[in-house]
Each structure stands twice: as structure tokens, then as C-alpha cells.
Amino acid sequence: MRDAFSTLHPGVLMLYFAGVIVASMFIMHPVCLAISLLSATAYALYLGRRRALRFVLTAAVPMLVMFAVLNPVVNHAGDTVLATVLGAPLTLESIAYGLAAGGMFVSVITWFYCCNRVMASDAVLYLFGGIAPSLALLVTMVVRLVPHLGARAHAIIRAQRGVGCDVGEGTVVERARRGLKVISILTSWALESSVDAADSMRSRGYGLPGRTRCAAYRFTVRDGVVASIIAIAGALVLAGSLAGATAVSYLPAIALPAAGAPEGFVYAVWGLLCLLPFALDCWEGLAWARSMSRA
Fold first, then answer.
1. Is the torsion defined by CA of 221, 226, 229, 232 positive or negative?
2. For the chain, N or C: smaller number of CB within 10 Å?
3. Would you call the peptide bond into 62 cis, given omega within 30 degrees of 0 as the criterion?
4. What are the tens digits of pLDDT across the range 27-80?
5. At what angle do helices 133-162 and 172-203 cross, to 10 degrees?
6. Average pLDDT of the chain, as a whole number
7. How many whole angstroms separate alpha carbon 36 and alpha carbon 263?
8. What angle do CA 59, 92, 250 make, to 5 degrees?
9. Quick check: 124 and 19 in contact, CB under 8 A?
10. Gap between the Cα atoms of 146 and 230, Å rounded
11. End-to-end distance of the chain based on CA atoms, in angstroms?
12. Which of 13, 42, 11, 12 is CA-nearest to residue 107?
């Protein structure tokens, strides 16, 4: 799915995702974490629909629960003791810190998921091809290889099921033998594909001196406006964080800054930054509706 935000210049997309990911990693305030997590989840569901929903239910939610449960088990610091389990204190601060750490981790992973959905491999190669062409090509091929291996594995399993060799049926030994056969076929296909890719790159002159680059993207006025909005919003959030608007302490006691106008302004700017893809889509939709009404 290509939404309006994904049609921006790759440099603008990289600026946006780098900003929200780095900010989500270092801002541990619960309000900012909730905004980042909810925005990233909503955007992932908007982009991926059922596949994103499966990712949220099978990966994001279990990771959040795991952090929330494991941290109080291994970390007993905190002043507010809620209960004593097997001789170890269960504190409110350890539960809150586990939820915050889990929310931070899940939000970062979800933003990476959105970035992977929005930025195509050719965009990554375009951005870093001039700086580190070999590294850019390697990263692009690795990212591209993972979904291809998954799709080919599903195709092999379906073909094996069609000839009566389903990996989910039979005894344990039979299922293990059939699973190893699928892995063997998949490995052979991956090796053959790598040899074909190497021959194709060599025949096209990869690595020869004097090579040129094809610039398939143009930086437009809209890209400049969106990049300016991202830069200004990011600078405001950074200034607010340095001023203490997002300062938080979970151990040994939960300490949050007093809620006031400066803090609310930082939270609002952070929310607008996280919801920028939806705002751009709404703007493009309204512009399209106006143009259609005039026609």
C-alpha cells in the first residue's frame, strides 16, 4: 500500500523515522511513550492491515507483557511494596519501569516495521549508495532476502503438502524428516539464487570504475515543507526534553515533572510529529476531494 507519506523523498522519510525512533529510545516519559506506541501501532495497522495486526498480536503485545512481567521478577527495587511473592518484594516502581521499558522497545520495533513498509529497498540504496555503495547494497540484499525466504518456504511447504508430505502430519520422526527436507530445498534455492545474482551483477559491470548512479527521486517543494516541519518539531521536542519537560525517574520512587503549559506543549508537538503521516494523508485526501468537486 502506497499512502501519501510514502511518496515523499527518501531523505525526508529517513529524517522522520530516524527522529521518532531515536526519540522513542531516549524519552521514557509515560505520556510520550504512550503517544509513540499508539501512533506507531495505528500507522502500522494503516499500512499493513491484517499482516500488521498479526504482527501486533503475535510480537508486539507478547513483548510488552514479557517486559512487564519479567522486570518485577528480577528487579525488586522500589519504595512502594505491593506484595511479597516467594520472599521477594513486588514493588510498584519495578512494574512501572517494566511497562515503560516494554513500551519503549515495542514502539521502536513498530516504528522500524513502519519504516520497512514505507521505504523500499531502492530508496535505501539511493540514499546510501553514494556514501557506502557496498554496505548499502549488502543491507538492501539482506533485507530483501528475509521475506523472499519466508515466501519460498511457504511455497515449498504447500508443494510438499500436495504430494502427501505435510510437515505437520505423521510421527515425530516423519515430521522431522520432512522439515529437514524443506530446509534442504530452501538452502539449495538460496545458494542457487546467490550464484545467479552474482553472475548477473558481474555481467552488468558491478564494481568497475567510472560507474554512474540513477537518481530516480526529485526533491520537491512538498518535501521541503514536510522536512521543515519535522526539523522544527524535532527541535522543539529536543529543547523541551533538555529543559526537563520529559524528565522521569522510576527508581527508587516514581518522579514525574509537574504538569504545566510547557510540558503540555512538548507533548502536543510530540503527538503531532508522531501523527504526521496521518496528517499528510488527510491533507492529500482533502486536496483531492476539492479538486474532484471543482472538476
1. negative
2. C
3. no
4. 989 999 999 999 999 998 888 877 778 878 887 888 888 888 888 777 777 778
5. 140
6. 83
7. 16
8. 80
9. no
10. 31
11. 27
12. 42
CB 111 within 8 A of CB 39: no
Cell of 50: 491484517
CA distance 166 to 158: 8
Q: Would you state the cell numbers that stand for residue 13, as one nine-digit string?
A: 522519510
C-alpha cell at 277: 503521516
| Gap between the Cα atoms of 60 and 106, Å rounded | 6
Return the sign of the alpha-carbon dihedral for residues 122, 124, 128, 132: negative
- What is the C-alpha separation between 115 and 105, in angstroms, rounded? 15
DSSP 59: I
- Of 113, 100, 10, the residue nearest 53 (C-alpha): 113
Angle between helices 276-294 and 221-242 in degrees, nearest 10:
150
Spatial CA neighbour of 6 closest among 276, 288, 292, 289: 276
Q: How far apart (Å, rounded) are the C-alpha atoms in residues 175 and 140?
A: 34
Inter-residue contact 108 to 24 (CB < 8 Å): yes
Phi, psi of 91, deg, nearest 5: -105, 150
The SS3 assignment for 80 reads coil
Contact between 88 and 49 under an 8 Å Cβ cutoff? The reply is no
Please give the single-letter amino acid code of residue 282. C
Residue 165: strand pairing partners: none
With a cut of 60, say whether residue 118 has pLDDT above it.
yes
Cell of 49: 492491515
| CB neighbour list of residue 96: distance below 8 Å, 6 or more residues apart | 30, 250, 254
pLDDT at 1: 43
- Report whether 121 contacts 145 (CB < 8 A): no
Alpha carbon distance 193, 205 (integer Å):
18
Contact 227, 209 (CB under 8 A): no
